[in-house]
Amino acid sequence: MAFASYFADGFDWLAFNFCAGFSFCAIYIHYFLMNILGISAYYHDAAACLVVDGIIKSAAQEERFTKIKHDPSFPRYAIQFCLNQSGLVPDQIDYIVFYDKPFLKFERILETYLAFAPKGIKSFISSMPIWLKDKLFQKSILVSDIESMWGCNVDWIKRLLFSEHHVSHAASAFFPSPFDRAAVLTMDGVGEWTTTSLAVGRDNNLTVEKEIRFPHSIGLLYSAMTSYIGFKVNSGEYKLMGLAPYGNPIYSKLIKDHLIDIKDDGSFHLDMSYFNYCTGLTMINIKFEELFGGSSRMPESLLTQRDMDLASSVQEVIEEVVLKIASNIAKTTKEENLCLAGGVALNCVANGKLVKSKLFKNIWIQPAAGDAGGAIGAALAAYHLHLRCPRYISTGQDGMSGSFLGPEYSNSEIESQLKKLGASYVTLSDGDLINVAAKSLADKKIIGWHQGRMEFGPRALGSRSILADSRVPDMQKLLNLKIKYRESFRPFAPSILSSDRSNWFELEQDSPYMLIVGRVRSDQILSTHQSEQDLFGLAKLNVIRSTIPAVTHVDYSARVQTVHKNTNFRFSQLIEKFKDLTGCPLVLNTSFNVRGRPIVESPADAFKCFMATDLDCLFIGNQYLQKDRQNQGLVKAFKEELEPLDD
Amino acid sequence: MASVMNPLILGSIYFFIITPIALVTKLFGRDELRMKKMGTSSYWVTKNKTDKNSESMKNQF
Asked: At how many degrees (to 10) do helices A2-19 and A24-32 cross?
């Protein structure tokens, strides 16, 4: 269908341009070489994405270059990378698309004060100068940032476009999906006004049908509970989800009776008298604390059963909303496919329930579901919705290239970076590299794996990963102690060959982006002693529950990544070899970083992280590095540079 | 100077412009944030289709 419309549209263009007296060459260039740069910035997790003729060529988050986690600043390094990757000069960029609409955001902020005045004066005085500067003058800030990077030769204002926040999310979920038609659900904290939206996508068209508006937001409800449990808003939500399996959802009724009213169709309404995020500088107020019978937990203080029960309760409520909305969408749109994006779509436990519910035949989730992914959506929205250009869909394959859209380094570049840092390495052939790495894993070594193009989005998917053998009983403890420098209540994630998925996990579909939770299959589960079952809290995590304990959560779930040959050849080869050696087709995969720091980008970053942690060996391209062969004098400086931060 | 003046000016704007407008519009039942619970069976809001035209991406609104 899309193919047909592609030619039909192309033919119209041909006819039109011939009539207008242009040459075929001009038409070819105009029609087939449209370079669009998508930008997400100034709020949280800035990123850039380059789309050429509707194909996502490259995308990267700014934090990877600046080493500032969730860096919100104008993504100049990410943009420069995107251009270099495709060999483009600034003048060749036809459009620059910003991922939200600043005026709508400003209107929402004003309306919020109007709804609450005279309350909110303190936040009005402290925030309004910033809002005025940032939102009303967003266009000039953007243009001046672009000009400071590329100069003033081009009138960038004429090439600047703005996409609505949730349209960006919806576009990032639908256009790269492998479906020619689908229902598209976006859920996050808040965009301009929208917090939840339903869109319907057909070929190159995408229409937002209905929405739920600020301040009613399940993303913000989840964040409110995150802050009440003493985690950082905008990054601690992931911890809350990891904590939930330790608790019982005994507060669900209280939450539903007081905080959120959920209708049968999944739409919801929050009682704002419990929240402070509209006009205050915090998420919740005293009424919220009184409802749950105590003040917020101090960060870093001991987690109690109550905290775990609260996490479990809010997780259950979120799942109920997501499932009810999905069920309603399935009924009203009659679509077989569902696409998801927005921060809430990173809740892989809820995604797992959604897949299990079988409400939809297929579900596809944008791997960069958070705001960084807005850069992809903004660029694709401009191409398909603004320029009305057709869309390619290759059967059974999405347009994200496995999310491997970031920088890559040739062996000579790797060697030059390593030499500069005084690293000691050997270069292996392709075959030896796989053999040595698989053997190291089987020997219980913890390895750094820096290969090919960097992942776009929050997860390491086998390009910038730390890998280990998930069968080793104390591997989880070891990794937390020696590499991650944290006490975690979250197990690590397994990366499994897609062909072996159903032999190890109860998971109905592939999960290439580590965004769906599945249960470890019962034949891999081991029985536990009564004394182990009686354990409390975090101690539960150390119980050996399955043959792959380092990736099995206390409720026997696992955050699965399925590895596919066509997008991740070298990583799949490594797991194949590991399977040959051990019979186990999966490895433990965690992001290649130190606590609180962004994931490594360059070979130099990887080497520094390798030296600052207790990683045993490192594979960068074809280069193999062993810890005991390195100059130990380098350790101190790198340890100081990469001191763990609070995450 | 600006650090004293800005809060004074903004505070005055809030009390003498925003607050009266807020109180009057509330009196007339304006509830843009839909803070009052509605008796309806759904909280979905139909998206305004007029802003769907492709030229809208040129605007910041």
From this structure: 140
